[in-house]
Design a protein that fits this description.
The protein is 14% helix and 40% strand. By secondary structure, the protein is mainly beta. A hairpin with a 4-residue loop joins β2 (21-23) and β3 (28-30). It is flat. The termini are far apart.
Length: 126
Amino acid sequence: MKTQQIKIRGDVVRIVDLEPITVLNGEDVIQFRIEIIRLFGQRVCYEAKIWRLESYRVQPSFPRKGKKLKHTLSDERFYVEDVSIIPRSVRAKTINSTLQAAFRELKYLLSRYGLTKITKSVVGVS
């Protein structure tokens, strides 16, 4: 059996946490994180990933007491990659231009679906 070599795709060079965005009825909020990755061996050097903070109710599967679980449900928050909002790669040649492109894409898509009107820009991004 041939072993497969693990290759490094890139480095995370910047993480930007956006302020929570109020949506729909004014009570719900969405919070995003934009991650900028420097790609190795690529002509276009940087790629953005959009992450959304989600809440989940989870239950540990171990340890058990007989057939019953010992622990109860727990509410946890996780960042999940949001490929539903930004289905395609956002790439550019600089960190700042990649961040600007990701922010424009996020702003356009959220406005298009009527979720919100974003009026603030990301700090340090013009």
